[in-house]
């Protein structure tokens, strides 16, 4: 693919691997925060080519995976019981709620639509003034600008039958929570390049300084990930702990100020529950009172209690990097993409899905 092949060069990948092997002298554990990086590691076989002294720990970096169970139940309730047109990105549809998924609700007759942009949902609301339209706004800081823009757009156009069910999670507080976890043994991090494209790198400097860990902002192609690992290993071997930017072709230190402006116009930071992990302080976005009429949580006042997770699912331990997917007794057995017990098996960025599809550990 044009503009991609240069980041998938096998000869250059081999050189990076050789340099990592020459550089590393003692065991190090490195967490890649984003599920897109996990998929790159597993799909391209990098996880098996790294020297034994480098252990990659898969982080919580999948916003679909950490969307609270009761929020999925709320989306299903709105679509099934309130008769709204429920719009969503496609990767949310098969994530299991406490009883069913949005895809199952759709099969039962709910009006659930897959879109590529929340602005499409605003247009649907304009075209259907007699129906309520809710966009399931899930994501990292990466998708927050578009979701915020849809609210501003609806406000300016006087679209009263549009709202969003927001479940945005923020990466730096999650990194802090992982480091603070008593079971965590992480020496360095690969930060999510797409998040930093929006937010910049400034939030990572205090974390790196406080916890004495190197944090390298990294892309998602094989050479990105390998170079990011090498940069972390070099810092660890030299007892350094700084923020570096491997993804400099995209990420700037200040990020995207215009995108940040629209985020701050619509959202404010609040505590957020991460599915399988629990509440992390200041790790999510809530809609400001100024735009309360576009907040589906307030608009419909639906109170759905948090249901317990499937007791057989260890997704919380997987997303905190404590366990690997293949260490789950249900992996590839009762838990498969067609019948997931937890979100990491169904999401396009979930660690369990990556191992299921690409590790060779599951018989076809």
TrEMBL record:
| A Pfam family matched in the record | HypD
**Could you tell me the Gene Ontology terms of the biological process aspect for this record?**
protein maturation
According to the lineage, what is the superkingdom?
Answer: Bacteria
Record keywords, A-Z: Iron, Metal-binding
| Molecular-function GO terms, alphabetical | 4 iron, 4 sulfur cluster binding; carbon monoxide binding; iron ion binding
Q: Which family does it belong to?
A: Belongs to the HypD family.
Under what name is this protein listed?
A: Hydrogenase expression/formation protein HypD
Record the organism: Pseudozobellia thermophila
């Amino acid at each position: 693919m044009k503009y991609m092949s240069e980041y998938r060069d096998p000869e250059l990948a081999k050189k990076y691997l050789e340099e990592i092997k020459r550089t590393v002298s003692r065991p190090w554990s490195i967490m890649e925060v984003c599920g897109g990086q996990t998929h790159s590691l597993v799909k391209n076989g990098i996880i098996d080519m790294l020297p034994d002294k480098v252990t990659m720990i898969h982080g919580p970096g999948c916003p679909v995976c950490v969307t609270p169970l009761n929020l999925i139940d709320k989306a299903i309730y709105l679509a099934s019981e309130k008769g709204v047109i429920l719009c969503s990105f496609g990767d949310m549809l098969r994530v299991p709620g406490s009883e069913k998924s949005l895809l199952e609700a759709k099969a039962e007759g709910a009006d659930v639509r897959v879109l590529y942009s929340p602005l499409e949902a605003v247009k649907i609301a304009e075209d259907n003034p007699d129906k309520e339209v809710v966009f399931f706004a899930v994501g990292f800081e990466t998708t927050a600008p578009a979701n915020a823009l849809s609210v501003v757009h609806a406000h300016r156009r006087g679209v009263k039958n549009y709202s969003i069910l927001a479940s945005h999670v923020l990466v730096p507080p999650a990194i802090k929570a992982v480091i603070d976890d008593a079971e965590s043994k992480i020496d360095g991090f690969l930060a999510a390049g797409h998040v930093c494209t929006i937010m910049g790198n400034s939030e990572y400097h205090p974390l790196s300084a406080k916890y004495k860990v190197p944090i390298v902002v990294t892309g998602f192609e094989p050479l990105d990930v390998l170079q990011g690992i090498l940069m972390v290993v070099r810092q660890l071997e030299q007892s350094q702990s700084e923020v570096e930017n491997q993804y400099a072709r995209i990420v700037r230190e200040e990020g995207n100020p215009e995108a940040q402006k629209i985020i701050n116009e619509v959202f404010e930071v609040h505590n957020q529950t991460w599915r399988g992990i629990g509440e992390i302080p200041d790790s999510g976005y809530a809609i400001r009172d100024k735009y309360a009429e576009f907040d589906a949580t307030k608009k419909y006042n639906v109170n759905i209690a948090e249901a317990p997770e499937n007791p057989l699912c260890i997704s919380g331990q997987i997303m905190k990097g404590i366990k690997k997917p293949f260490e789950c007794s249900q992996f590839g057995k009762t838990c498969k993409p067609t019948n997931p017990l937890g979100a990491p098996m169904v999401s396009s960025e979930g660690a369990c899905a990556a191992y299921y599809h690409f590790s060779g550990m599951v018989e076809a």
